[in-house]
Write a structure and sequence with these properties.
The chain is of the alpha+beta class and about 280 residues long. The protein has six helices and eleven strands. It has a seven-stranded mixed beta barrel with strand order 1-2-8-11-10-9-7. Helix 3 packs parallel to helix 5.
Length: about 280
């Protein structure tokens, strides 16, 4: 069954206009639970409550406000907010093309597949192919739900994909993150770490190999409960506590099975490991 478009728009740059359709690229399938009354099992309803007047407030009596200081709000009517919204325009205005390797995935908020709309096939294909050959992505603006969105369009397989982006001031700087102390690693430590990476490496990423095991367990438990069965849980196996990094690398390699590369002889490994740790401590 072909995918159904959720919206339509136009990519515009210079005098070029390309009609396109939006398609959902990904959607969460995680399990969700409802809040129930433990007494009768009825699904609960959320209500808006005013703590000052001590009363439940109807939706029709609600207005929006922006907090300028603790407990102090600037109020806006729906008409005022409507007037502040961007013009309702389905066009995606491309501002510039930039090298693909300067595009940081950390800014991606949401993604959509783009397909050509009626009459746009040739221009759509030409844009996709040209960006692929030049290794460029398109940066532009798009008005959605009254707000101006920063967007990036990039070639994807034999078509285009559309990324709705966070603005730069919405992304936390990585410099704020404490990445820990610096170390002078021993050669043997580097060698074992690289061997472990090589042992666990695959030629390509195959997303279909992975599944949400929590969702699978929950759905199985739902079936058991519907059938009136009592849930049985296996005790969680305790994890081995290995504090020494060198020993952890060795044991990880040994756990790799028959295809794993043979570890170094015990005496040599232990001797070089002690030397490496001394060198690391000194650094």
């Amino acid at each position: 069954m072909p995918a159904r478009a959720i919206a339509s728009g136009t990519i515009s740059f210079g005098l070029v206009s390309i009609p396109v359709k939006f398609f959902t690229a990904a959607s969460s399938e995680q399990v969700r639970f409802n809040m129930l009354h433990d007494k009768c099992g009825t699904r609960l309803k959320q209500q808006l409550f005013c703590p000052v007047d001590q009363e439940v407030v109807s939706r029709s009596a609600v207005m929006k406000g922006y907090e300028v200081s603790s407990g102090q709000f600037v109020r806006f009517t729906e008409e005022e907010l409507k007037a502040l919204e961007s013009d309702h325009d389905s066009s995606i205005h491309i501002v510039e093309f930039v090298p693909l390797d300067t595009f940081d995935l950390i800014q991606v908020e949401r993604s959509y597949y783009l397909g050509p709309d009626r009459g746009g096939d040739k221009a759509y294909r030409l844009l996709s192919e040209s960006m692929r050959v030049t290794s460029k992505v398109a940066v532009g603006r798009w008005a959605a739900r009254g707000k101006e969105q920063l967007v990036v369009i990039r070639p994807y397989r034999d078509g285009l994909i559309f990324h709705q982006m966070f603005y730069a001031d919405e992304v936390r700087a990585f410099d704020e993150i404490d990445t820990g102390a610096t170390f002078d690693f021993a050669d043997i430590e580097r060698e074992l770490a690289q061997k472990l990476i090589e042992q666990l490496s695959s030629k390509t990423f195959e997303g279909e190999k992975y599944e949400d095991s929590f969702r699978k367990r929950v759905l199985a438990a739902v079936e058991q409960k519907v059938a009136g069965q009592e849930l049985q849980f296996a005790p969680e196996a305790p994890r081995a506590q290995i504090i020494d990094l060198f020993e952890a690398l060795k044991q990880s390699l040994n756990a790799g099975g028959a295809d794993a590369q043979k570890p170094l002889p015990p005496k040599k490994a232990e001797t070089e490991g002690r030397k490496g740790r001394k060198k690391s401590t000194a650094g």
